[in-house]
Design goal:
There is one protein chain. With about 190 residues, the chain is mainly beta. Helices cover about 5% and strands about 70% of the residues. It contains 1 helix and 12 strands; from the N terminus they run βββββββαβββββ. The protein has one helix at about 85-90; strands at about 5, 5-20, 20-30, 35, 45-50, 55-65, 70-80, 100-110, 120-135, 140-155, 160-175, 180-190. The strands form 2 sheets. The protein has a 10-stranded antiparallel sheet. A hairpin with a 6-residue loop joins β8 and β9. The N and C termini lie far apart (about 45 Å). The relative contact order is 0.10.
């Protein structure tokens, strides 16, 4: 069985490299409270802070890593994450080319199990600036987009995705067969 009373890691660097992708994660502080495999329903607390490129990332929360249903509650702060740094990884995963910056202050709640579909909820604010998403039809882009609200996914439900909040976007450019279409802005507030 695996377990520890407390784990702390500080001032560490993790360098990841492959032929088309390279990044360094600087871990300023990582701390886990008690984690015991033989007490699977015990809640473990954790926190970490660090940087990824020019972006700062911090999180704190709780998890149940050995429970039949691993429930997690995480507060996450992310600033100025450059999406273009992940272009190769996203392309290899079959996702379109993406550029721009993302910042977020969110609460993430999860319920993950090998026997049940996942449940994930994100609540808070996500801001994207200068984002461009390469599609077969052309680039979908915008100067700035802000989501404030809740996004929930429940894999066990037929209507598995729920959005409740507001979206404000400025400087949109949408691909079209006869050339891009521009829109000054978009505001949406509601629930689906």
């Amino acid at each position: 069985q695996f377990g520890f009373g407390k784990l702390e890691i500080a001032r560490s660097r993790l360098h990841y490299a492959e032929p088309d992708f390279e990044t360094t994660f600087v871990l300023d502080d990582l701390s886990f409270g008690r984690v015991l495999a033989w007490q699977p329903d015990e809640v473990a607390d954790f926190r970490f802070s660090g940087t990824l490129g020019d972006s700062t990332l911090s999180a704190e929360g709780t998890a149940m890593p050995f429970a039949a249903v691993n429930r997690g509650d995480i507060q996450l702060d992310l600033s100025a994450l450059d999406l273009s740094a992940f272009e190769t990884v996203l392309r290899d995963a079959g996702l379109p080319q993406i550029d721009g910056m993302v910042a977020a202050r969110i609460a993430l709640t999860t319920a993950l199990s090998a026997d049940e579909p996942p449940k994930i909820a994100i609540e808070g604010r996500i801001e994207a600036t200068g984002v461009s998403l390469g599609l077969d039809e052309g680039a979908l882009s915008g100067d700035r987009a802000v989501w404030s609200g809740r996004i929930a996914y429940d894999g066990a439900r037929e209507d598995y995705l729920e959005l409740d909040g507001s979206l404000e976007a400025k400087g949109l450019r949408l691909p079209a067969s006869d050339g891009p279409v521009s829109a000054g802005g978009l505001n949406w507030d509601g629930r689906i």
